[in-house]
Amino acid sequence: MKIAIDGPAGAGKSSAAREVARRLGFRYLDTGAMYRAITVQALEKNVDMQDEDALVDLTRRSELEVKSDDQNGNLILLNGRDITRAIRQPIVNKYVSIVAAVPGVRKELVNLQRKTSLNSGNIVMEGRDIGTNVLVDAEFKFYLSATVEARAKRRWLEMTEQGMNVPFDELLDEISMRDQLDQKREDSPLCIAPDAYVIDTTPYSLAEVVTKILSIVSHTTH
Ligand code: DC
Fold this sequence. Notes:
The chain is of the alpha/beta class. Helices cover 53% and strands 16% of the residues. It has a single domain (2-211), classed as Rossmann fold, CATH 3.40.50. It has helices at residues 13-24, 31-44, 52-61, 90-100, 103-120, 130-134, 148-161, 168-184, 206-221, and strands at 2-6, 27-30, 64-68, 74-78, 81-82, 123-127, 140-145, 197-200. The protein is globular. Bound molecules: 2'-deoxycytidine-5'-monophosphate. Residues 9, 31-32, 35-36, 96-97, 100, 127-130, 178, 182 line the site of 2'-deoxycytidine-5'-monophosphate.
């Protein structure tokens, strides 16, 4: 079974997708982490972010592996190096939507995502275009949304807990900017698949969102 979970930054996709996968005993794949990995590599190699050919070339030459860790999260290995923490740096947030808008980069990573699904059996895959492009034949599609303020607040709390001191307004601007870039790009922009269940997570806790998803999956399959 394939479960696709899409939505904008900060809607709670990663936590919900990972927990749903853990409860069902499915593999979890965070596709945003893959775009982030290429962004880390581009920053380290000083690739010009406007140079699409260089970004595609870099993606083709990168050996990207996404493994499951012992908590059903993802370990990101790039050319054998563990960059799981590096992909979450604030500078990566700033550039990742630019890298993810390049069609040649998307083509390479979408191939890898489909291959991973084929080799994994049951999977929960999370991103922006999973239900609309990567796994159009997924048995279940969910689109998680939340107001931009609620999403920025969640990110702010997360970062504050990790000891990072980022002004709330800065996060709000950054998330709004990423929404724009992810929704307006030409190649598979963020949008709601016609057959997706839409959940506005603004008033709900993570546990409530997970329960909603699991109840839809179990009601429809039993
Ligand atoms: O979910 P995230 O914040 O880690 O995603 C990082 C960026 O990658 C996001 O700005 C959009 C892009 N992305 C994408 O274009 N397609 C996906 N399937 C997943 C992420």
